[in-house]
């Protein structure tokens, strides 16, 4: 039904002409779900935008064609193309919050789509809109139709987006990362809804995603993209039972989950090449451990070693295939021998309560408080990792910041947080400064957490200077050199500025900064959620190494269950400000007691085939 | 206040006595600050990348070239001195009472070559007939000008030829100068990059390379051409004509440039420290400090600035009148009025800059690197000065550039209405004010207005284009209000 | 929302109080009432009694901020500041040096100023929006580039040139309009055309360019992509989606146009001989009439604060997030 023929898209930017999509060919059948998978910069979203011809003003389709049925979309006039958008091709996007118009009611937006493409007008169109809202599972659709987007929850907004996209009953739905911005339980609901609607209406879905778990859950066929090219194309079953391309293979190996506990993850060194160049060889060659001279000097074609399973790798070429090297075996020794648990906890949190004041009324006086964290208690022992798991708004980040005393002045914090023999909550400024040597933090955003105007050396030095004033200049320089080495950065990094580094490298710098004062505990606030899977694996490996070498404890705040399964010794599950369940990771993951934990674990999409998944 | 700086104590009296007016100090300070900032930018890649973007656009760099020319004229006009009148041995050296600038010296012919009244551009006779006695009979005739076209033997015949010859010579000389500049650039490039001259020339011609050097050099060439022609013509004529009292308009308009530049930059600068300090404090400390500072700038912002300026100028005039002993010379009065005009004009841009910085700091304070610094127990003072201040510095320079053209336009309007600079001061506003009445004469005297228009338009246009380039280079959302 | 609006009103009153304090300080502390008396009575050699008499006449014979001789609250209330402020609240601004009542003068002169400012405001904002939307239809084409060039050129020309050449060309060369002057309606029209046209022309550049920037920024947002994905036409996207979302920044900038109108009023009225508030202010300055200038500063600020308040109300109209929360 939808066919891409050697699609090539160019974007004019300050780096010259970038080709984010280069020679992508694929075919989607009516009624099937095709998942286009890739890391950031792989060109998967641009492919989707090219299909609907919604490229930014500086982009254009430079070659190939997009065919919907028999019609070539690339040559249509803008006016003709409009009859395809919405009517034949529906689209939903990553951020339902910003994708809806904030100043129009959701009803008006759906009615607009209906009136543009069908004969229904006025009350009839409105009735149809109410009908759609009901079908996507919005409660009280008659009332909700007059709501504005900001009055709905994230999941509801995405449901409205789906209603909007399907209102004119298109035969193809392009879903661009439809659940990335949503919590995992909501994600499951949205994916289920999409599959239901697909079954009901027999439409095709092109799903753009970076999450192999989602793919395994919903897709029929899979296309893997790397650096603007399609590198592997297969049915879901064939792909997950035996991925062929080295990249796909290692991507799966880089996903943290419970089976990989005790082993280092398959990190892929290096990063995606910039796309403003002409390639002479395989685009993955610089990062591939099996790459040969041929890979570097010849362009690989799509080979078909198995029926309906094609792959862009010389290992599967008919003549002179390149031999795939066995991957170096995952280090079994990476697991630290479980030390006997220390007797006293390093950090002991008791009945922690964080309340943010609500101001209202004429004079904006504090009229009440909203409880962000309510009676949270846990213990963290030296050298161990405690994962604080929860969905957005569960209060996990607030808990971390409250322990670090970063909320003084903005929120009311009660309870006790004892680090060694200091009560952080009631410590004087001097005591707190002393205690800060032992507890440090790593943040989520590797771009926001480093001052762009300071050299890496200065960034590392600032912390040492503030908390270890007894170390002199020479000592500090020595320490900085050692730190950079420890986190796997060259010494020359010292004199560079943060913007010269990639996301993963920046996160290494942030880790080095936290380590600079030799803390006993590091609060890791979603340290890998802004990173691609392959880079996430590098960082998780590094954290694990450091723990083994230095015996540092982690309070690991995350929403990513896979990371938790892989890394945590103990887990505390948070829901709306409370810890609902806490326990050793082994027992908690296999036999969760609390209903919420069960829902949460069940909702996590796994990047493997499950027999139970209905076709 | 202006004060003489004693020259080094040698026996022979120095030929000039250097004088530095208040506003001169400001001009020098701005220059020094600008150089320091450029030096810092060059050493900070993060900043350099963004600033480079501003100069990558062809209109932006062309505008910057033109602006640089205007600034150079302004700076030359800010080097003030008093010439030596007599220096007889054994006697105290006597210096002239009037303060001159280097520009006055360079334009001595124009400054001293006064006519009696109006004359049209490039004319050799006066604009109006005058009564003269010819052969004992009174007649009304167009008189030859004293300092223009008096080298012409038979003006009716020679004038057109002379003008064309001067234009041609000027153009050739200007282009020669431009060629010299280009040659110097090529030599530098070939030396630096170890390439042949021919290759460097080809690269320049095709506009290759990271910077739009071609545009800049083309702009320089056009400027050289224009100034070459003007300089040649100015040797024998009043290029832009003369005003009512016979002053050469080229001289007057070049003197107006400095006033415009001083007002355009100083207004932002005098109030900048307050704006930055309060903006950062309000944004970072929040709470009641924020409330008070916001209230303060809302109040000041709520007084219409024309009226505020009108009131202040009125109050100032009365104050000067009542306290005459504080301002002994008219130059000091003029200077004081200019200074306070800048302060009040600065008040209005102050609130904008303060609000801009406050907004930026509110965003920055949530940045994780600030929180990381807090987690290290870094002191509030250090967070403000090391982490926040450098990250809002660019806003100051941007608002300086963006406010510039608005302030130059505002000066003209205010002076025109009579609440701007002192009427005795040369500025675009006072110039236009005189031009207005001249247009209603019969026949109309159009060249004062035209001259003011040409110079003011090119100044404001280049400032606007340059500020556009800067806006685009930096986050456009933060700056477009 | 009611709370929000009431809070804005209270804040506006506080701001007015602050303005009153600042202007009082400006007018009475830099030059004391003695200085003013000397100025008005002429010259430095004025008898002390004459100064006292003048101060008593004008109610300036009390301490400025604090009266130690008075009893109780009177220490604060029996002062020039409080009496002067109360007078202003009662719209009693005193008399001009010529002896006319300032409040009455203001009432007389509001009409002509409004008659000029209202059409300028409406036409400027309306035309700018239309032009900016038009440029959006041709964005990133040569037409757009040309449009931007024209706008930058327009905004680089001082409004004075527009006024002077406008008057010269239409009033003198073509003689199709009166050079200056004013008459009450219905004859008003012919006197107002030229100032309004000249003024709109000088304002069109900056406003259109600002709106163009606003629209461009909105066009890059996600909801516009959604609207495109629905298959809407470009015009429908601009009018139904982009324009509606742009109202907030447009309202803000339209509010900022008011100060510009005031400057314009001062220049245009003095130039075209329109007997409005602007020329009243200029006369006040030329007569060194403190009462007039102070009244105008307060009156102008009052209009300002009122506009800001209206802007706040307009936000509530334009944005459901403000309206419903």
Describe the structure.
The complex is a heterotrimer of chains A (615), B (481) and C (325). Residues 332-337 of chain A have low confidence and may be disordered. Chain A is built from 21 helices and 22 strands. Chain A is an alpha/beta fold and 615 residues long. Chain B has 481 residues and is an alpha+beta fold. In chain B, strands 1, 2, 3, 4 and 5 form a five-stranded antiparallel beta sheet that branches. Chain B has a two-stranded antiparallel ribbon with strand order 6-7. In chain B, a hairpin with a 7-residue loop joins β3 (80-86) and β4. In chain B, α1 packs across α9 (249-285). Chain B is globular, with a radius of gyration of 26 Å. Chain C has a domain at 106-287: MetI-like fold (Orthogonal Bundle), CATH 1.10.3720. Helices cover 77% and strands 0% of the residues of chain C. Chain C has helices spanning 2-29, 33-41, 48-58, 74-77, 80-89, 102-137, 142-155, 159-173, 188-219, 222-229, 234-272, 277-286, 290-318, 320-323. The radius of gyration of chain C is 25 Å and the shape is flat. In chain C, 38% of the residues are buried. Chains B and C meet through α10, α11, α14, α15 and α16 of B and α1, α2, α7, α8 and α9 of C.
Treating each run of at least 4 consecutive H or I residues as one helix, how many helices of chain A? Answer: 21
Uncertain regions of chain B: pLDDT < 50 for 5+ in a row? 1-10, 476-481
Strand order of the largest sheet of chain A: 6-7-8-3-9-10-12-11
Main sheet attributes: strand count, strand direction, barrel closure of chain B: 5 strands, antiparallel
Oligomeric description of these chains: heterotrimer
| Span between termini of chain A | 21 Å
What kind of sheet is the major sheet of chain A?
8 strands, mixed
Q: Tell me the radius of gyration of chain B.
A: 26 Å
How helix-rich are the residues of chain A, as a percent range? 25-40%
In short:
The complex is a heterotrimer of chains A (615), B (481) and C (325). With 481 residues, chain B is an alpha+beta fold.
List keywords for this structure.
heterotrimer; B: 481 residues; alpha+beta; 5-stranded antiparallel sheet; two-stranded antiparallel sheet; 17 helices; disordered N terminus; C: 325 residues; MetI-like fold; 77% helix
């Amino acid at each position: 039904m939808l066919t891409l023929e050697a699609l090539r898209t160019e974007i004019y930017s300050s780096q010259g002409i970038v080709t984010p999509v280069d020679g992508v060919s694929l075919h989607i059948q009516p009624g099937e779900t095709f998942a286009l998978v890739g890391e950031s910069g792989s060109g998967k979203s641009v492919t989707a935008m090219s299909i609907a011809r919604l490229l930014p003003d500086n982009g254009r389709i430079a070659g190939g064609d997009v065919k919907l049925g028999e019609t070539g979309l690339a040559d249509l006039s803008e006016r003709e193309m409009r009859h395809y958008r919405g009517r034949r091709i529906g689209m939903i996007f990553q951020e339902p919050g910003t994708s809806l118009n904030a100043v129009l009611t959701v009803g008006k937006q759906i009615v607009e789509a209906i009136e543009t493409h069908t004969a229904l007008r006025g009350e009839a169109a409105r009735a149809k809109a109410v009908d759609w809202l009901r079908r996507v599972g919005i409660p009280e659709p008659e009332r909700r139709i007059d709501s504005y987007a900001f009055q709905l929850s994230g999941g509801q907004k995405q449901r409205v987006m789906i209603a909007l996209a399907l209102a004119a009953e298109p035969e193809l739905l392009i879903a661009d990362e439809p659940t990335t911005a949503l919590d995992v339980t909501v994600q499951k609901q949205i994916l289920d809804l999409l599959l239901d609607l697909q079954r009901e209406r027999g439409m095709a879905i092109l799903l753009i995603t970076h999450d192999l778990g989602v793919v395994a859950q919903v897709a029929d066929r899979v296309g893997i993209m790397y650096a603007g090219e399609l590198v592997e194309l297969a049915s879901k079953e064939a792909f997950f039972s035996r991925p062929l391309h080295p990249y796909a293979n290692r991507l799966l190996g880089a996903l943290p989950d419970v089976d990989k506990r005790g082993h280092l993850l398959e990190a892929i060194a290096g990063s995606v090449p910039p796309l403003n160049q002409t390639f002479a060889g395989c685009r993955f060659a610089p990062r591939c451990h099996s790459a040969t001279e041929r890979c570097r000097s010849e362009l690989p074609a799509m080979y078909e070693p198995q029926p309906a399973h094609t792959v862009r790798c010389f290992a599967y070429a008919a003549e002179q295939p390149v031999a795939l090297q066995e991957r170096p075996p995952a280090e079994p020794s990476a697991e630290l021998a479980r030390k006997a648990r220390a007797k006293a906890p390093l950090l002991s949190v008791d009945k922690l309560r964080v309340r943010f004041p609500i101001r209202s009324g004429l004079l904006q006086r504090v009229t009440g408080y909203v409880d962000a964290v309510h009676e949270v208690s846990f213990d963290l022992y030296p050298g161990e990792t405690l994962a604080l798991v929860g969905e957005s708004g569960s209060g996990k980040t607030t808990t971390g910041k409250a322990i670090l005393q970063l909320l003084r002045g903005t929120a009311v914090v009660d309870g006790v947080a004892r680090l060694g023999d200091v009560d952080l909550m009631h410590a004087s400024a001097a005591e707190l400064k002393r205690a800060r040597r032992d507890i440090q933090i790593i943040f989520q955003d590797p771009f926001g957490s480093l001052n762009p105007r300071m050299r890496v050396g200065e960034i590392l030095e600032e912390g040492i200077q503030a908390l270890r004033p007894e170390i002199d200049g020479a000592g500090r320089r020595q320490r900085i050199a050692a730190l950079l080495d420890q986190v796997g950065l060259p010494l020359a990094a010292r004199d560079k500025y943060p913007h010269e580094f990639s996301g993963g490298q920046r996160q290494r710098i942030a880790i080095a900064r936290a380590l600079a004062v030799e803390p006993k505990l590091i609060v890791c606030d979603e340290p890998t959620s802004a990173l691609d899977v392959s880079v996430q694996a590098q960082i998780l490996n590094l954290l694990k190494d450091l723990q083994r070498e230095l015996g540092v404890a982690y309070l690991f705040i995350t929403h990513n269950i896979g990371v938790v399964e892989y890394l945590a010794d103990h887990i505390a599950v948070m829901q709306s400000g409370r810890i609902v369940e806490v326990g050793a990771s082994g027992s908690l993951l296999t036999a969760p007691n609390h209903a919420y934990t069960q829902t949460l674990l069940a909702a996590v999409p796994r990047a493997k085939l499950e027999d139970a998944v209905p076709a | 206040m202006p004060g003489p700086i004693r020259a080094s104590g040698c026996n022979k009296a120095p030929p000039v006595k250097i004088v530095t007016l208040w506003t001169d100090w400001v001009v020098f300070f701005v220059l020094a600050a600008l150089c320091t900032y450029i030096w810092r930018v060059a050493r900070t890649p993060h900043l350099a990348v963004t600033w480079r973007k501003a100069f990558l656009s062809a209109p932006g760099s062309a505008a910057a070239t033109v602006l640089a020319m205007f600034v150079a004229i302004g700076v030359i006009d800010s080097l003030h001195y008093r010439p030596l009148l007599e220096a007889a041995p054994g006697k105290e050296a006597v210096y002239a009472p009037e303060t001159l600038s280097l520009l006055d010296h360079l334009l001595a012919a124009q400054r001293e070559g006064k006519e009696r009244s109006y004359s049209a551009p490039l004319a050799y006779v006066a604009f109006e007939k005058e009564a003269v006695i010819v052969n004992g009979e009174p007649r009304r005739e167009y008189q030859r000008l004293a300092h223009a076209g008096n080298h012409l033997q038979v003006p009716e015949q020679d004038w057109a030829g002379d003008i064309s010859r001067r234009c041609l010579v000027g153009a050739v000389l200007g282009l020669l100068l431009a060629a010299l500049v280009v040659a110097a650039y090529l030599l530098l490039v070939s030396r630096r990059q170890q390439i042949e001259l021919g290759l460097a020339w080809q690269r320049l011609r095709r506009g290759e390379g990271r910077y739009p050097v071609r545009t800049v050099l083309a702009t320089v060439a056009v400027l050289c051409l224009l100034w070459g022609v003007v300089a040649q013509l100015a040797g024998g004529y009043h290029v832009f004509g003369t005003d009512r009292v016979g002053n050469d308009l080229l001289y007057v308009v070049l003197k107006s440039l400095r006033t415009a530049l001083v007002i355009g930059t100083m207004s932002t600068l005098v109030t900048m420290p307050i704006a930055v300090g309060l903006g950062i404090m309000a944004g970072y400390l929040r709470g009641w400090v924020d409330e008070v500072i916001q209230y303060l700038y809302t109040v000041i912002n709520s007084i219409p600035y024309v009226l505020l300026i009108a009131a202040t100028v009125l109050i100032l005039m009365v104050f000067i009148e009542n306290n005459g002993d504080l301002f002994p010379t008219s130059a000091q009065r003029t200077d004081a009025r200019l200074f306070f005009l800048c302060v009040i004009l600065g008040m209005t841009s102050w609130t904008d800059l303060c609000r801009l910085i406050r907004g930026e700091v509110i965003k920055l304070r949530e940045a994780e690197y600030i929180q990381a610094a807090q987690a290290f127990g870094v002191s509030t003072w250090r967070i403000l000065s090391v982490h926040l201040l450098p990250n809002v510095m660019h806003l100051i320079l941007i608002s300086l550039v963006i406010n510039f053209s608005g302030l130059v336009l505002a000066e003209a309007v205010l002076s025109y209405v009579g609440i701007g600079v002192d009427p005795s001061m040369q500025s675009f506003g006072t110039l236009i004010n005189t031009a207005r009445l001249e247009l209603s004469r019969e026949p109309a005297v159009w060249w004062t207005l035209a001259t003011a228009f040409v110079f003011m338009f090119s100044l404001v246009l280049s400032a606007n284009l340059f500020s556009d380039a800067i806006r685009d280079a930096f986050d456009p959302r933060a700056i477009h209000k | 929302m009611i709370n929000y609006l009431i809070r804005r009103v209270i804040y506006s009153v506080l701001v007015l109080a602050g303005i009153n304090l600042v202007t009082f300080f400006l007018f009475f502390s830099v030059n004391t009432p003695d200085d003013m008396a000397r100025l008005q009575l002429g010259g430095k050699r004025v008898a002390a009694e004459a100064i006292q008499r003048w101060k008593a006449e004008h109610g300036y014979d009390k301490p400025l901020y604090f009266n130690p001789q008075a009893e109780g609250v009177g220490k604060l209330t029996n002062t020039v500041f409080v009496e002067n402020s109360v007078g202003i609240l009662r719209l009693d601004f005193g008399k001009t040096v010529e002896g006319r009542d300032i409040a009455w003068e203001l009432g007389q002169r509001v009409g002509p100023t409004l008659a000029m400012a209202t059409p300028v405001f409406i036409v400027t904002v309306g035309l700018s929006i239309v032009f900016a939307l038009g440029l959006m239809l041709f964005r990133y084409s040569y037409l757009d580039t040309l449009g931007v060039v024209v706008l930058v050129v327009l905004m680089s020309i001082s409004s004075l040139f527009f006024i002077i050449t406008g008057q010269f060309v239409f009033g003198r060369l073509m003689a199709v309009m009166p050079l200056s002057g004013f008459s009450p309606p219905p004859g008003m029209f012919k006197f107002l055309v030229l100032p309004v046209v000249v003024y709109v022309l000088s304002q069109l550049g900056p406003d259109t360019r600002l709106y163009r920037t606003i629209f461009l920024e909105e066009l890059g947002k996600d909801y516009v992509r959604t609207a495109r994905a629905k298959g809407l036409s470009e015009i429908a996207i601009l009018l139904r989606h982009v324009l509606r979302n742009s109202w907030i920044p447009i309202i803000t900038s339209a509010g900022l146009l008011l100060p510009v109108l005031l400057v314009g009023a001062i220049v245009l009225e003095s130039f075209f001989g329109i007997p409005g508030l602007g020329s009243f202010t200029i006369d006040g300055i030329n007569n060194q009439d403190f009462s007039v200038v102070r009244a105008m500063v307060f009156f102008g600020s009052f209009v300002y604060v009122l506009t800001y308040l209206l802007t706040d109300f307009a936000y509530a109209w334009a944005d459901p997030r403000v309206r419903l929360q």
